[in-house]
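Re: weekly structure request thread

Next one in the queue (156 aa):
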Amino acid sequence: MEELIPIKLVVNGVEREVYVKPWETLLEVLRDKLLLKSVKAGCLRGECGTCIVIMDNKLVKSCLVLAVEADGSEITTLEGLSDIGKPHIVQKAFIEKFGFQCGYCTPAFILIAYWLLKNKPSASREEVMELVNSVLCRCTGYKQVIESIEYALENR
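Done, posted below.
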């Protein structure tokens, strides 16, 4: 019988208790146990960045974090940004500036923009580009993503 470990997380403002295996990642818990499908499983090696979430006000690749390491943490995913029927300013910026294509990497980019808005609202283009480069996107060429983030920062 495999051991399950109870952990507590505050996910998108809601306290959750989840039982996890010692080797389960935060990505697996968010997607498979809490059904937060905006957190994407891409490379599972921390290279593509599609699994980015905000954990304790830091951008993290959730495929590289064991769920037990996240015990007691506050996690924000894309689902936590908007009220039903009312998108967040960052989501509006991505719509207005076409900062998405297929949508697979978009949640990570939007969380990066949200984090910048909260923590570095005067971020330079170089700072934006550095964070954007942590996510692999094969559709946009990043131009619209950078423009969307800058638009959100300018119109906060």
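The chain has a mean pLDDT of 94. Helices lie at 26-33, 89-96, 106-119, 125-132, 143-154.
Next request, please.
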